Amino acid sequence: MEINAQGIYYKDLNDIIRKAIRNGEENFILRNVNGQRYIADGISKKISMEVYGVPGQDLGAFMKGPRVVVHGNAQDGVGNTMDVGKIVVEGMAGDVVGYGMRGGRIHIKGDAGYRVGIHMKAYQDKIPVIVIGGKAGDFLGEYMAGGVIILLGMFSQDAAKPIAGIFMGTGMHGGVIYVRGEVDPHQLGFGLIPKELDGEDQKNLKIYLKEYCDDLDIDLRKVLSVPFKKVVPFSHRPYGNMYAY
Amino acid sequence: MLHQPITKNYHDFIIERDPEKCIQCQVCVRQCSYGAHIYNEKDERVTEDEARCVGCHRCEALCPTEALTIRRNPSEFRENALWAPQFIKNIYKQADTGGVLLTGMGNPYPYPVYWDRMVLDASQVTNPSIDPLREPMELRTWLGSKPDAIEVEMKKGKPNLTTQFLPQLQINYPILFSAMSYGSINLNVHVGLARAAEELGILYNTGEGGLHQSLYKYGENTIVQCASGRFGVDSKYLNAGVAIEIKIGQGAKPGIGGHLPGEKIGKEISITRMIPEGSDAISPAPHHDIYSIEDLRQLIYALKEATDYEKPVFVKIAAVHNSAAIASGIARAGADVIAIDGFRGGTGAAPTMIRDNVGIPIELALASVDERLRQEGIRNRVSLLAAGGIRCSADVVKAIALGADAVYIGTAALIAVGCTVCQRCYTGKCPWGIATNDPYLAKRINPDIAHRRLANLVRAWGHEIQEMLGGMGLNAIESLRGNREKLRGVGLNEVELNILGIKHAGA
What we know:
The complex is a heterodimer. By secondary structure, chain A is of the alpha/beta class. Helices cover 14% and strands 24% of the residues of chain A.
């Protein structure tokens, strides 16, 4: 189903999509999207959606299944509390990508904003993965409880910027952040230090990056040509000794 | 006692064991999860370590020969108006541990309780009071956003409502069970709450702990909560209840997050919260996708979109200094219901300093929010829930007269199933089997009995509310809402009367 989203209010656009899904439609192409919010929000079916233009806030929030490809930039809140599925952004993404994300993949070609991957968590077979081809802002992976964030720093609009902002991984108590190249320890949250990858890391990283490179037509060898560092929690109970019982 | 540290001397309670009555049966030993009763095998006698007693009275209640009495420890510090015992004891504890003080339940300190400074009106001579035993008396309430105006068209001589309403929730009593997560309390209590809510035609609230698989069938009476940690939140969960509550704050701990330590995340809680066993469940202080009213609007509508606009969205905030302005923002952000939790609201665990010093009384917050929304002409857009220290049906009536549509009860519900408000919920060792997920302790709550007692409580309050309404000459709870003429203050100063929007008794 192809929809020309030009001038359609977000509520009406999403209503059209939901109704079509109820009627069995599985493939969507949205053209001229211009800031419409909540696209694919809460959709619990394995639909496929291609978005041309710039989708608005909370793209794919709470979604459980869809595969969404954005041929352009995305705004804030991509994949908020997302559960299953995949969001591929061929441009940049805004702040708060993958907040509280529990599963699925978010693949961003370019830069991402602040507060990306806050409180991601993994459970059983659900391991959320965010891959950012560019650079990220402050608070990347704050409170991270599980899952994987991969930061490449390769396709950034701003060559002068460090690969990530400050407070990366602050309060993280699960999961892992992989950074291509070096990350300055002063950019990390309290108690964290960049570490070398082990064999298991290398294996997983390659699997995640292969999928990312396939989605965005990037040369995997080039991505892997520079060694990675990882950031993991210094404790699974970072605040375990704070209280007087 | 010479070799005891000072913290052992100044314990809170003493355990009196009548040697004439004690039969050394050790029920107390098995009942006390804090180890205050000890069986000495050599002497074949039960003894006690009074420093461990939390004053929950479980042993006293279950002692088959009534041999036990738990009393306040009469051993007192030198009297001092500034250095009250709790300050001295807290310093000892922190000097021992270097830790943040924790506590449970609501603020116990003698701040003014405005419920007790307000009295209700009754009809005398000039208008008749109504007897609810013989005349209709409506307690039914609809929660949800009401339109600014309604339009009616005549069809075949009959009026037909053409205005489209936003989703409304019908509740048979203006009383809901407030959010208490699976984790802070156990499944037996949740089952009791859910079944009681179903029987009564009211709602209970999951809190931020997800929804146990066995409770999905009570969806018609469930409010699911979406808080900053997003635990157990997926599209199935969001659609499981009849409403979604965004928890911004809690009266017992405004401005701070939550922290369920890893040792409390057992198998069932792990499945329900959708996090691994043994990992900490940390709820950040703010939702990190909400830094403004505009962001709140974004989450409200993200939730509405995810549930096809079928469910009202509640926003719960702690009562703080600027509640009125905040509530106005929340109403304009598109919330259907605003819940305001006063500083006496309970908690499973909170830092003591926060619980006892942060936030404002619900009575003042509620009155100012209702007044502000009325002044701005948007009171109809939201329903208001008052929470935090509602102890009896008269408190409910006063809350509604101050402007609430309904109230949330949490502590009162737990007391109904056996809580004695010992304030040690954070230890996870609740001897009454409520605020614990230790299977040995949790089975002390029978869900059937919990269900019955909760239903009894709300029904009894319902009768009392009807009596009070009838006495005032009202026959529907709706006629009481925001009807402050039915309240008078006793012993309140002018500032307090102005904020509450009531006259002094006699005026």
